[in-house]
Amino acid sequence: MDELTAPVPSRPLEGALPLIESLLKQMVRFGGFELQFAIEKSAPGEEEFEAPEYVVDFTGADADLLVEKNATLLDALEYVVLKAVRLEEALYTKITFDCQGWRRLRVEELKLTARVAAEKVMETGDPFPLNPMSARERRIVHLALRDQPQVRTLSEGAGPERKVVILPASPPPARSSRPFRRRH
Q: Which of 8, 113, 115, 122 is the most buried (most CB within 10 A)?
């Protein structure tokens, strides 16, 4: 078996933290970013919608770069670093990269979007597809509406086009194909 197909040895998240820190230091330095970061253990009992064990929190003069355009650079940095240190995908939810409280604000935004869309579905009975989003964000929407008995959610699509669709809990009654007739 060659190196490219050799399985990656399994390691706990804590074993990957020094690698994550080292790689981030290099990326920040060679990228010319004015950023600092700290890897912190999350406080127990935090938000149920996104409760990682560790948060990599960025600060500094270039912090705005990380959160502009819906935090595209922050998400890309997280993805590249976790892939580069060969972290098992099952552990991806155990660590998150954040900057300026972006993740907390995004969770609140997604919960509000889910509630507004659910109200629309309850009023109209029509499905309401949300914009494509990451697996993490789709999970937040599903959790936000899990206790809403009038609606249900499902994810559809593939890859970067995968999105949540909010539907009525039960399909609308089938309409009769016969015209309505009044009795006299």
A: 113
